[in-house]
Please model this.
Amino acid sequence: MAGAMRGARRVRKGAASSNRGVARTGWRDSRMRHRKSILITGAASGIGLATARLFARNGWFVACVDWNAAALAALSDELGSDAALFATVDISNRADVLAVVAQVGEITGGSLDILHNNAGIDAKGSFANMGWEQIEQVVSVNLLGGLSLIHAAYPLLKGTPGSLCFSTASGSAIFGVANMAVYSATKHAIKGLTEALAVEFAPDGVRAADVLPGIIDTGMLDPAQKAKLPVTGMWRPIPADAIAETVWAAYRGTKLHYYVPEELAELNVTVTTQPEAMRDNRIANPPV
Model:
């Protein structure tokens, strides 16, 4: 699960500048014609941060999008101004999404090898007791924000041979998690969206895939909860780097759904064939 995309709006390449204007044409130089590119939302923490680091190390141009300006500034200092674009964006704001995608296209000359739809926010607690504003926020960021991003970036993907539209779903998209009902619903939607777009986008040469992570050891994982988790099995904490490596592998892979850890694929089969048994087991043994 990655950081939410809410907050101020600005773009960094070294020093910050407004993302309301046209990107500096100096960024699109002769090097960009031979450099692959990835746009990552939720790039300043967790899975997004690990993915940005991995692709930057391998020479890709990385467009890092997040709501957290301070965290993006730190990432800018780490990766360097030649490696990436750093945009503080509200992913639920359509105008912001269109602006940053336009800037990426200006920099890359209209190409995008990977779109990593990764941003998301969590919301724990009983559905019946959750405030409606909180429900709207989760849906707005996790689902509508992702739809907006993919819709805006599709022309760049379509114009790039071998491109990949990749989304971070969740293990909760296998079977909904009690007390995370809205989050689970948005991740089920992302999984279904990926399946539909994999078919729709294929004639244009664009692939779609997703990753369904289990429990990721990031800042979103409560220390008290982590202490109760097993050290082996499908619900063991997984480092964010494992998901970043999955994104890297997916660019050259052919799978539709990537399960991390792989034991979750077995759970998916069980749920598909015996959903009532899974329901009854969860009622009797609620997740940690």
